[in-house]
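call fold(seq) -> C-alpha cells
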Amino acid sequence: MSRRPSRGELSFGFRGEGITYRLGGRALEVGFSYMGGPRLYAEGIGRWSDGTALTDDEKAEAFQAIVRFVKAAGGKPTVVVNGDDPSAATWERLCADNRRFVAGIERSSDEQQLQLQRSMYLLTLQAGKGLTIDDTRITTEGELDDYLRTHRTPRRR
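ret:
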C-alpha cells in the first residue's frame, strides 16, 4: 500500500514490515511490524536516510502522517517509545495529541532491546546452529555475550 498525504509519500515495506516516508527528496525508514498488532517504533523517526536529524516540527509532521497512514490501512498502531531516546517526551506528547490514531504506548529501553536481540540470537545457538554477526563467528553463549558487550552501539544524540 502506498499513499500520498498532503505533504510527503508513505509506503509499507516488504510484507508490511517498516514504513518509508518521503518528503522533499528525503526519505525516512521507520520501524513497524504487526507482531502483537500494528507497532510503530517512534525512535526511527529521528534521522533522514542521509543521517540528518529531523527537527521537532519534522518529527511531529512525520509522526502524524505515519499514524494516520497506519490507521487508514486498517488499524491504530501501538507506539513503542524507548525511554532512553532523547525524544521520548516528544513521542509521548505526540501520542496524546494524536490519540484518535494511536492504540496506546508501549515503553521500552535500550537494555530491553538488547535482551530481546540476545534472546533471538540465543535461540539460534540453542538450535545447534552457530551465528555469524558482522563477520564474527559465534558458537557459545559466552561468545555471544562477549560480542554484544564489546559491540554495543553507542546512542546517537
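Residues 67 and 101 are 6 Å apart (CA to CA).
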